[in-house]
Amino acid sequence: QPLISSSKWLQLHGLKRNKLTLSQILSQIGFQHRKDYVTTLGKLVASRYADGLFPQYKRAQDGSVYNLTAKKELILHFVDCLMGAIELYKQRMEWLTSESRQIFGVIQEQCIVIVLDFGTAAPADFDLCRDALSMVLVEQVTQIAKFNLIRAAQDLMKWQQKSTPVSEHTVKSAVTWLWKLDHMTAASHTRSAEALLEAMSDDAVSS
User: Domain of life, per the record (predicted)?
Assistant: First the structure.
C-alpha cells in the first residue's frame, strides 16, 4: 500500500468517495418525507401521499423520515458494497498496525533523517532496536526519495554527511552500517539535542 495518511486514504477509498454514506445511500433508495413551509398558505404542509405506500426509515441523527422505494436487488447491491468497504477498512487497519508501522507509523515525508538514541538499552534491546530500524528501512524508506541516519553519541556518528537518494544499494548500505554499530553507554541529553539539530540542518529535510 502507498505511504499515505489515513485522511488521504479515506479521500480515495472512504464511504463518501464511493457514495456509501447513509445519506448518499438513502437518496439512492428512496426520497425524504418532507414537511415544507408553503409561503402562499403561510403554514407547514406535510406530504401525505406516501403515507402507507412505502416502508419508511427514520434517521436517529436528525429525525428525518425517508420513504424507501428501491427494489430488493438494489438494497442487496448496497449490502455487497458496504461489506466490501468493511473488508477494505479491516485490511487498512491490519496494515497500519503491522510490522514497522506499529512502531514508526506511516512515513509520509519524501526526505527523512532518523536520529538514533539508544539510551540505556541493554545489549538484547539494542539488537531489537536495530531489528526495528532495519525493518522500517526496508519496508518504508525504500518508497521515499532521500534519507540519512545519525547516532547520538559522545562523538556524533552519521551514516552519510547529507541525506542520500534512496536505492537498493543505499538501503542495504544503511542496514549494514546499522549492524556494525557498537553497543555503548547512553549519550547525554545534549548529545541527543545536537543530533537533532544536525538532522534539521540538512536542507533537504522539511520536518
Answer: Eukaryota
For strand 35-38 and strand 43-46, is the pairing parallel, antiparallel, or unpaired? Answer: antiparallel
Q: Rounded distance, CA 128 to CA 108, Å?
A: 24
The HSE-up count of residue 115 (CA atoms within 13 Å, CB side) is: 20
Distance CA(128)–CA(130), nearest Å, equals: 5
35-38/111-116 β-pairing: unpaired
Strands 30-33 and 65-68: antiparallel
Query: Cβ of 129: how many Cβ atoms within 10 Å?
Result: 18
Instruction: Report d(CA 198, CA 156) in Å as an integer.
Output: 9
User: In this structure, which amino acid lies at residue 38?
Assistant: V
Three-class secondary structure of residue 111 per DSSP: strand
What is the length of the chain? 207
Report if pTM > 0.90. Answer: no
pLDDT digits (tens), the chain, 207 positions: 789 999 999 999 999 999 999 989 999 998 887 766 666 767 766 665 556 778 888 887 788 888 889 999 999 999 999 999 999 999 999 999 999 999 999 999 999 999 999 888 888 999 999 999 999 999 999 999 999 999 998 888 999 999 999 999 999 999 999 999 988 766 677 888 888 899 988 888 765
